[in-house]
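The methods section describes the discrete structure representation at length, but only in general terms. Each protein is reduced to its one-letter sequence and a matching series of backbone shape codes. I believe one specimen quoted in the main text would settle the matter. An entry of this sort, consisting of the sequence and the corresponding backbone structure tokens, reads as follows.
***
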Amino acid sequence: MSARTSIRLAGLASAAIATTLLAGCGSSAGGSATTGGGGTQPQSGNSGGGGTSTTDGIGHPVNVCSLLPAATVASVTGEPLTVAQEQDTASYKLWTCDYTSADGTSGLTISVLALDAAPGYDAALQADTNAKQITGLGDKAFSGVLGLQALFGNVSISVSDVQSDAAAETLIRDLQPKL
């Protein structure tokens, strides 16, 4: 396993924690549709009538790659990012974009979690022994081993594999109003 793969796996750990919490709570989200490529598709057969529940922070699919194109992310981070690939898990309302350079040597991940995000955020914060609280970003935010994560109501935005917290914070501030 390459170092790049290890970093990517670590970057998705907070999403995995949230997913585990969802499974433990008996969440009955629909199938496990994953979208690769450029688009997300709405889940059919929603039992909530299309509205949002207390565990659903958005109520609609999100295409992170469209909202923050690779050129924008490259400009903010200073990294040579040219490829953006959506890696969604719609059944958990986890919307993720994986940004990489053309040669695959650098990259980062931006994720939006909109289902049980508050408990997922709390679990990720508790699990990260190097967490540093960030003030003035969302309801609460922290930076740690896995990157920067901010909570806005029951929507969590995470940026992992970025060299600076300032760049991660800028990306979160750019994305959040577009949700």
Summary: Residues 1-53 have pLDDT under 50 and may be disordered. The chain is about 30% helix and 25% strand.
